[in-house]
Amino acid sequence: MAVAAPPATRERLERLERIWRETPGVLGWLTTTNHKRIGILYFFTSLAFFGAGGVEALLIRTQLIGPEQSVLSPEAFNQAMTMHGVTMIFLFVIPMSIGAFGNYLVPLMIGARDMAFPRMNALSYWIYLCSGVFMYVGLLSGNGPNAGWFDYVPLASKTFSPGPGIDFYALGLLFNGISTTAAAINFIVTIFKLRAPGMSINRMPLFCFAFLAVSFALVFALPALNAALILLELDRLLGFHFYDVFRGGSTLLWQNLFWIFGHPEVYIIILPAFGIATSIIPTFVRRRMVAFPLVALAEILVAFIGFGVWAHHMFAVGLSTVTTVYFAAASLIIVIPSGIQLFAWITTILTGTPRFKTPLLWIVGFIVLFILGGLSGITFAAIPFDQQLTDTYYVVAHFHYVIFGAAVFPLLGGMYYWFPKVTGRMYYERWGQASFWLTFVGMNVTFFPMHILGLDGMPRRDYTYSGGLGWSGLNLIESLGAYLLATGLLTVVANLAVSLFRGEPAGEDPWEGDTLEWATTSPPPDYNFAVIPTVSSPYAMWDRRDRERDAENLARGEKTLERGHETPASTAVDAEWDEILEMPSHSSWPPLVALCLGGVFTMILLAQWIAAAVFLLLVLVALGAWHGREPRAA
Amino acid sequence: MSARSQASGWWGMALLILTEATLFGSLIATYFYLRFESTSWPPGGIEKPSVALPLAFTAMLIAASLPMFAAVRAAKAGRTRAAWWLLALATALQGTYLGLQIDLFLDNLQTFGPQGSAYGSIYYALLGLHHAHVAVGLALDAWLLVFLFGGLTEYRLLALRVTALYWYFVSALAVLVVLTQLYPSL
């Protein structure tokens, strides 16, 4: 764009460059508030945790490769199983989708120059990092949680789990929850306030609708988990009796609170994947999404209905028939918005002219796996069937199809899709396709036999099984599948790592993409867009006239906001010009506040109340000082 | 001219309020869940809570919303000194509320503890978390009192508006908390 630019334009770009320049070096990364840098930090951190969770999975599968193995002790197995779940959900999928993809892409897609709260964005990242380290200190010191990611009481109570493992879990997740809540609030405000003027809510990309739905779901779902965790820690650390049936408490209270969070959480995990699918499909089939408003509404409906189905995780605990029937019916209703989206994706692909490049392959794989996982999901709404199969490998098969197949496949496809944008280089197409097939086959070989084993009655979470039950063959196949799956994932990482250094230059828009991130250079400059983009549809890049207008505006110096560290704000629904916001830039407070908060949680874990209070005071002082520095008035 | 959107800070606070309200919703639901699991509430040996003092304290906290509201009005009109004093008055009321509440809390602890029964557990947990929210509000007040002393800026005006919003929420919540707390006596 800037190659043959007239001098006035070049001067403008240089001025923007100067205003938005990031501090170089390590210090720059520590104090950054730039959404793209924070997205990259999230990416590498969650990728590292993905590796850790993957190693745990491989250990589990190696232990189960044959009957009566002793690769892991029963205690080590329980810790690996628990941390595998906690890691994949809280330290990988959510931070990868919301933290990395959301942070990097949402501001670009809505034509903004940063998130609404850039410093809080940095704080979210640093808290996430500290909370992950906090939980892994537990595991690596031999004190990992061992009661499963759902952490049912009474097993998780002090009586039956006297060690600090459960405290690492509960305090770690409370700590982590602060990060996720802050991120969710940040996305909602960003999407409501910072859309480029002209991008009224009906012109917003479906990707952003998905993130809006997820963020609202998080705001309302996490408090239930936080309440459950606070009560658990009060029981464990101070001898309260919330979950103690002998003193008037209730163990089912935990299950209710946990699943009021836990089921919306499933949609929180999967909705960003839906958003990624709705970004990749139009680009690679060269047509707009079928039924755009229905898909947008379905994304929001899934998040909403997800709050009314939690007790289908509890059909075997002895609820009344009326209750179970209600929750079974509510669970079936989710089929409707999910079906709308599925049919819309499939119809869009069938009526378009698909190019089966790597990103679209992952999405097609996702659709296949989501249908399979969805079908096994429907079977759980049949109450007697559920009661028969609960706590067997059938459940494990179902949720890995949904969470790994449906939630992670689009993330991997998204990594390929946006790799050229983030790095400016292309990945290796053939290796990309190979990595897809390896992962797809590995995934099915690993998880499909679990359906059969579950129907045969193999219980989940057990560290071993005896040889005479006829389960050995399928378990062997599953474990081999897991190694194949790991090979596929390593191929993805290797492909992207090599391409980072040796890939062909990608240019601004290698895919002829549909949304605004493709309007800027690859990688995008620190200020994202030299001109605040003109938008008249959700497929902004396919509106040639608007992009020409951007170029004209740049030449004339209109809508360039080059006088300060600024981004425009618009009205929440119609996106009319509202005001110009002066955005804060780099700050060293976020990592400091996160560290002090880490001190608070560590001291609570150690029951050092005075030290915890001192750290809390430090947090408050730091927050006060942080907000003492005002952005200059625009 | 179209209606202007609220400032980002206002949106942020509104969403924080939504999530905190959900937290208290979960706790109040927990209270009644536990209540309907047990045959006697409060369980034997624990007296029903006395009504007068907690209600009077709550009325005082709600009353603090008036100077808070007036402080925002004054600040919007540019009367910084008036805003500061009104805010100081609100803070004094809110601080007194917290002091009296903690006093009552400690007093209650003399008669029954959180470690005796699930009733005691939820009683003290609910109150404790409410008090923590009041304390956060007081920290916001303290910050404002320090920074408003140095004059009024658009940023500080927004901070004042947002803090007021937070206090309206905490006051409304106080009503729900106190009604739950006093439920056995009502």
SSE diagram, text form:
The complex is a heterodimer of chains A (634) and B (186).
Chain A: H1 7-20, H2 25-31, H3 35-63, H4 74-109, H5 118-140, H6 165-193, H7 206-238, H8 251-285, H9 292-305, H10 321-333, H11 335-351, H12 358-380, H13 383-389, H14 393-423, H15 429-455, H16 472-502, H17 544-556, E1 566-570, E2 577-582, H18 589-605, H19 609-626
Helix pairs in contact in A: 3-4, 3-5, 3-16, 4-5, 4-6, 4-8, 4-14, 5-6, 5-18, 6-7, 6-18, 7-8, 7-9, 8-9, 8-11, 8-14, 9-11, 11-12, 12-14, 12-15, 14-15, 15-16, 18-19
Chain B: H1 8-37, H2 52-63, H3 65-76, H4 80-111, H5 118-149, H6 154-182
Notes on the protein architecture:
- Chain A is an all-alpha fold and 634 residues long.
- Helices cover 66% and strands 2% of the residues of chain A.
- Chain A contains 19 helices and 2 strands.
- Chain A has helices spanning 7-20, 25-31, 35-63, 74-109, 118-140, 165-193, 206-238, 251-285, 292-305, 321-333, 335-351, 358-380, 383-389, 393-423, 429-455, 472-502, 544-556, 589-605, 609-626, and strands spanning 566-570, 577-582.
- Chain A has a two-stranded antiparallel ribbon with strand order 1-2.
- In chain A, α7 packs antiparallel against α8 (251-285).
- The model of chain A has no long low-confidence stretch (mean pLDDT 95).
- Chain B is mainly α and 186 residues long.
- Chain B has helices at 8-37, 52-63, 65-76, 80-111, 118-149, 154-182.
- In chain B, α1 (8-37) runs antiparallel to α5 (118-149) and α1 (8-37) runs parallel beside α6.
- At the A-B interface, α6, α7, α8 and β2 of A face α1, α5 and α6 of B.
